[in-house]
Amino acid sequence: MRRYRFFFVLMGTLLATGARAPGQDPLAAVFARIDAAASRFKGLTANLQKVHHEEVIHEDDMETGTIKVKRPRPKELLVRVDIQGTNPKQLVVNGNKLQVYYPHSGELQEVELGKRKPLVDQYMALGFGESSSDLRTSYTVQLGGPETVAGEATTRLELIPRSVEGQEVKRIDLWISDKFGYVVQQKLYQPARNYTLFTYTNIVLTGAISDSVFHLDVPKGTKKEVLLKGK
Question: What is this structure's pTM?
């Protein structure tokens, strides 16, 4: 379970432009940038760094790679993550399925999201074209303050899920670019003081990503293991 768990708390998150008006409430200014971005978000590519922290053993597991996101229509997201290094993985979320391919072992794992799909969609939509209204429907949002991430000035938001039923994540922090409005970092707080940190760099906003990218091209004869069936 551990090696694909972070994909459920996906990842990711983006867009918006616009300067803060004089005297405008700082949180309202961030919401305005989010809404401006949501109205025109079509997709993106970025470099990704993921760090999962296990508090009980004081261990950080770091992975790097790339992420591609496309919104072909409202309320629908296609996601692909390619993890590089000594333990490469290819992940795709498309429709009601999440698939992970491990090139070294030749394993293909599949999760049928079923009733879990709304929760997965909620996590994936954070910053990927979600409006501030949608954000506030699912979370209580507080202003965290200014911070610099990967050399970029950002404003941190603290999100507390309004419903904790079935959720492993108890809180989410988003770092939103002050200049461009997209999210450059996410931190997902989990039980036992564990957390997962996603940092995005070299972000390119584009809708010109082929739908074929979001289908895994695995060798013929690859055995598929269905880990969870939708219910």
Answer: 0.84
